[in-house]
Amino acid sequence: MPHEVRGVIAAAKGDKVKVGSVLVPDPGPSEALVRVQACGVCHTDLHYREGAINDEFPFLLGHEASGIVEQVGDGVSNVEPGDFVIIAWRAPCGTCRSCVRGRPWYCFASKNAQQPMTLADGTALSPALGIGALAELTLVDSIQAVKVNRDAGPEIAGLVGCGIMAGLGAAINTGGVSRGDSVAVFGCGGVGDAAIAGSHLAGAHTIIAVDIDDRKLEWAKDFGATHVINSSETDPIKAIRDLTGGNGVNVAIEAVGNPVTYEQAFYSRDHAGTVVLVGVPSPDMKIELPLLEIFGRGGALKSSWYGDCLPSRDFSLYIDLYLQGRLPLDKFVSETIALDDVEEAFAKMERGEVLRSVVTF
Ligand SMILES: NC(=O)c1ccc[n+]([C@@H]2O[C@H](COP(=O)([O-])OP(=O)(O)OC[C@H]3O[C@@H](n4cnc5c(N)ncnc54)[C@H](O)[C@@H]3O)[C@@H](O)[C@H]2O)c1
Ligand SMILES: [Zn+2]
Ligand SMILES: [Zn+2]
Fold first, then answer.
1. What is the pLDDT of residue 56?
2. Residue 260: CB within 6 Å of ligand 1?
3. Atom of ligand 1 nearest to the CA of 170
4. Atom of ligand 1 nearest to the CA of 278
5. Which of 45, 122, 221, 346 has the fewest CB within 10 Å, making it most exposed?
6. Which of 89, 131, 191 to mutate to test the pocket of ligand 1 (most atoms within 8 A of CB)?
């Protein structure tokens, strides 16, 4: 028997989201049914509701979640009912061309539940990033459910499922930030601040936070920014060069998803440095760069998908570092809200009032 629960639905491009009834099937083979305890509101959810990801409406939003495994289907051995898990939007398949090359963090056929969650009339929902966790229950592939220490609490653990992991990984995995490096991070929302925290953890010497909002720059200092630049008042490229002996940074991380900030990141790095794009652009965005500059500056221009993480390796690691007092993950939780407040949370995000609003159940 399917379970009827409340979930946040984006019905059509640009429409405000609404809480409606969602039918969630019992888990089939290799699936897990998870009772969601907390789910963050990420900018990517807003991209979905604006139609900037794809047109497969209606969406069931939510993809930064933790919860308790309620039921598992046949053949599931990695989790059992009662386990506290973070839900991942990457569950490596083990057999695609990337997995067999030994690069499961790029898995091209990541696993999701086989059965759809639906509206009451049977219309299949597209779960955001293959999760759909702004709902009381969600159905995922069991490999998406990653067991972690429950002492971290549901709100913080949920955020590790997307924004925190994306930012930490953009710095540590994709950017390869290491001891003594200089780093600039463009955009200090949840993802950018996690990139700052990751750079700090990796031992970066200089960490420059760039944003257009002074509140965000204040918060960025809490995560390890050594310098801040308000790029609506100051030319960030010149300011970053000035802070780095005229050279630019070793790693420049773009966490907005915008051609203007990407270009700033491109010109802010030192020769042979790395640019990491973790912000998600919309389909209409274009950028023009002199090919000679791309050649002449050398180094690497990389994109970071989910911080190039391996959830089975990384989620527990960062939860444990938090519990040891070495990573201030609690500072990402700006407020806890109810399921009915997601539209207001989008507005607060756009006004720059929060790092993360987290729905608790
Ligand atoms: N690659 C991934 O795997 C991945 C995962 C999660 C989120 N994301 C993306 O990362 C981006 C950031 O997400 P978030 O949740 O932190 O968003 P957010 O809205 O919380 O933060 C965005 C920040 O960018 C700042 N900003 C906006 N315009 C700017 C400009 N011109 N110059 C400097 N700063 C500017 C804002 O003030 C804000 O602080 C989004 O595009 C999101 O979709 C990517
Ligand atoms: Zn997200
Ligand atoms: Zn794979």
1. 97
2. yes
3. 1
4. 1
5. 122
6. 191
Task: Name residues whose C-beta falls within 8 Å of residue 249's C-beta, 6 or more positions apart in sequence.
Answer: 181, 182, 183, 184, 206, 208, 240, 268, 269, 270, 273
pTM of the model: 0.96
User: What is the third-level CATH fold of 3-161+328-360?
Assistant: Quinone Oxidoreductase; Chain A, domain 1 (3.90.180)
Measured by CA distance, the residue closest to atom 26 of ligand 1 is 187
- Residue-wise pLDDT tens digits, 158-191: 999 999 999 999 999 999 999 999 999 999 999 9
- Give the distance (Å) from ligand 1 centre to CA of residue 166: 11
Ligand minimally distant from the alpha carbon of residue 232 = 1
Give me the phi and psi of 87, to 5 degrees please: -95, 130
* CATH pick for 167-304 out of 3.40.50.300, 3.40.50.1100, 1.10.8.60, 3.40.50.720: 3.40.50.720
Q: In the chain, what are the domain boundaries?
A: 3-161+328-360, 167-304
Cα-based distances in Å from 14 to 52, 119, 123, 128: 10, 19, 20, 15
Strand order in the sheet with 300-303: 227-230, 206-211, 182-186, 249-254, 269-277, 300-303
Query: pLDDT digit string (tens) for 245-301?
Result: 999 999 999 999 999 999 999 999 999 999 999 999 988 999 999 999 999 999 999
